[in-house]
Amino acid sequence: MKTTRPTLVMAAMVALASPAAAQDWHHPLYLGNGGVWRTRVPIEVRNEMPRDAAGDPVAVTAGNGPGRLDLAGARAEAIRVCTADGTELLYRITAPDGRDLTSGPIPAGAVVTVPAECPAGGTATCYVYADNPLAWGVPDFLQAAIGIRNGGVEGGEGNSPHGWRHDPGDEQHRALWVGERPHSGARCLKTLVDGGAEPTWIATWQGGIHIVGGQRYRLTAWVRAEDVEGYAGWYVHVGNEDEPMMIGPMARAGDGTFDWTQVTVEFEAPAEANLASLGTVLRGTGTAWFDDVALQALDGEAALRAEPGAPERTELAETGADAAWLDDGRPYRVPVTVANLSDQDRDGVLVHMATAAIVGRLAGAVNRDSLRAGAGGEELAGYLAANALVFEAELPARTVRTFHVYFSDDPAVGPTARGSYEALAESDANLARNPGFEGGGELPDEWPGGAEGERPPGAELGCVESGLFGRWAARMRIPHDAPTAWTGWRQDVPVAPGRSYLFAAWLRTEDVRERVRLHAHYRNADGRRRAVRDEAARQRRPRPQRHERLDAAVGDLRHASGHRDLPASPDHEHHGDRLARRRAAGRGGARPRRRARGASSAARDGADRVAGQRGSEGLSRRPRAPADSVRGHHRRPQ
């Protein structure tokens, strides 16, 4: 009988080239859902300000022709923006009618706003990616905008024009969006305050408008009034996030009854200002209508400009999705998709796929030891490590290739002989030298840190005959009363920028009162330390394995110094250290660091870039996706 179940999609979409070079195709990008971005448009940012641009927004308009972002019609959900080094940025898409566009096709005339990082007097390139049918929409968007949105208040829904907000009113104070003889178009704003009502600052307003400190601006708008006692007009508040109203110029149209009248006010933004908000004013009673507001810089061309280039496309072949099943009795399989976006064939690539999503999808019923990888009906060399399966693969140039990982829920199905951690530690993929501490005398070769002068008084470091996979293990014994110090075995391993690594080891402990740490320092070619990563564990069970994924994202990174450190604790042993590089990683979306029994190798060509948003006007970098993408699995036909 033939049985089918929903599909479990797990993607390993990794570009096999360093993302630090501008010409490389950046991949993977945030929430790709297993897809590849096929189109991108470079944007050259030119900064003529006397200071560096550090998140200042710049805008480009979608459409065809010179100076336009040629992505009209692309899905807004699939838009991603990144710098030349692969750092992903938040962005904002504003439709011609002023509404924020987060889904659906991008119309011609839409404005795409991005934060710029560019030195004073210099240029920088960022990329807008599109055309990934599988991409999910992003949850966060840039808040800053260039210029007034929907200044003619024509587009909107209900009682609100897009991009504008009404102050809360009451029965005597009302802010409306109406079609009552506007200055132009079909709609305008209206404020109505009943006679005898208390004067208030009832308004319709718009905020988050980016300005440049020290620059001069002119506000121009239109007002008409009927029986106004007090005055009607427009206001501007200029400041920054900490002080939103450093100055508050106002364009007054007066009182009484008058037809459409243009009002104007000019001002110079304070040097520390970068934000403006503006809105309507009816201070008093009566009725006023408002329309067609504009804010213009008076100091010539913008000091920060963006120029879109011609669209670029990558053409990829797709293979392996319909491969025959392995005839091995395992009833389930999961597709794992890997993209080689380079122009070179890649042989011996290590693909790393996290297994937690499979286990979670089947409510823990998966026999982890049964996992194995296949392609074209043939089994691939693979290894089980911690919460991952690592397998060897060949990737033709410019190809998206689908592999399949097979598994069973039968606890009697065991791993293949080559599917062990020991086999992976002994493979060429392991960059650590003397990983099992088998070479050497009293102290292991290639592992400094145990000699006199490199350890605190009373500490004992050496090799003992209790190896997990071989004869020897490296041991540290530190008295509880020893001075607190970082003590451990160390080794320098060459690494490449823009790739990810996984540093793993087995250990057992006795009477440990502090944390045993798996520790790594990143250093550049000059020896300067650039980053630190560690994985802490307070372990008492025999021989648990610890692992940590290391992202070598710094552009001039050249070495990683791996440590197994123990701060003033009595006794623990090392078994089979490993610092291995993987060239592709099985993932659906970005993955947070996970802890588990066992370990896996890891170096991906194309590291994730993450950081927190730095305010509405600052550079905003996208956070990692919260989890792997899981949508079901295949049951083998019977």
Describe the protein.
This protein is mainly beta and 638 residues long. The longest helix has 6 residues, at 356-361. The protein starts with 9 loop residues before the first strand and ends with a strand. Residues 1-22 and 537-638 have low confidence and may be disordered.
Features:
elongated; disordered N terminus; mainly beta; about 650 residues; eight-stranded mixed sheet; single chain; seven-stranded mixed sheet; disordered C terminus
Ordered list of secondary-structure elements with their pairings:
Elements: E1 10-12, E2 39-47, E3 53-62, E4 68-69, E5 80-83, E6 88-89, E7 92-94, E8 111-118, E9 123-130, E10 145-146, E11 156-157, E12 160-161, E13 165-166, E14 173-178, E15 188-193, E16 204-210, E17 216-239, E18 250-268, E19 275-297, E20 304-308, E21 312-313, E22 317-319, E23 332-340, E24 346-354, H1 356-361, E25 367-375, E26 378-379, E27 382-385, E28 388-395, E29 399-408, H2 421-425, E30 460-464, E31 473-477, E32 486-494, E33 499-510, E34 516-524, E35 529-537, E36 545-552, E37 557-567, E38 571-581, E39 584-586, E40 634-635
Parallel strand pairs: 1-23, 3-4, 10-16, 22-29, 24-39
Antiparallel strand pairs: 2-9, 2-20, 2-21, 3-8, 5-6, 5-9, 7-8, 11-12, 13-16, 14-15, 15-19, 16-19, 17-18, 17-19, 23-29, 23-40, 24-28, 25-26, 25-29, 27-28, 30-31, 31-38, 32-37, 33-36, 33-38, 34-35, 34-37
